[in-house]
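Hey, quick one: can you model this chain's 3D structure?
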Amino acid sequence: MEIGKLRRRLVLVVMGVGLLLITAEKCSCAAAASFKDCYTKCFVYCMIEPTETLCSCTTHCFKDCIFQGILFQQDADHSSDNLGFCKLGCAFSMCSGISTKHKPNGDKVDGCVGSCSTKCTKSYSSSP
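Sure thing. Here's the predicted structure for all 128 residues.
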């Protein structure tokens, strides 16, 4: 009886450590990755989760990968925050239909989101 409890605890510990390693790898890759790499990896990981849908994965990955890129380019002022929100809105409206359940189409999404940079310039930012 005691051996059964020990096995269950061991399995839980191994699963917990595995989850931590996967999460750490996912976060470290996202911090240094291009938008295309970030989006593709994020989308694949997201679609593996049984509760996620195509729409929720696209939304989640746009948010994470667009703002990840903006944070590393951020100037001393806060206008890049507004640039990120503009790019996010542009990406939702123009690029969200590119990915399919079985193919993230990272190249096409990257090109589409990249075109949002020309639509969202710092002139859209509000003055403090």
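One thing worth noting: Residues 49 and 57 are 10 Å apart (CA to CA).
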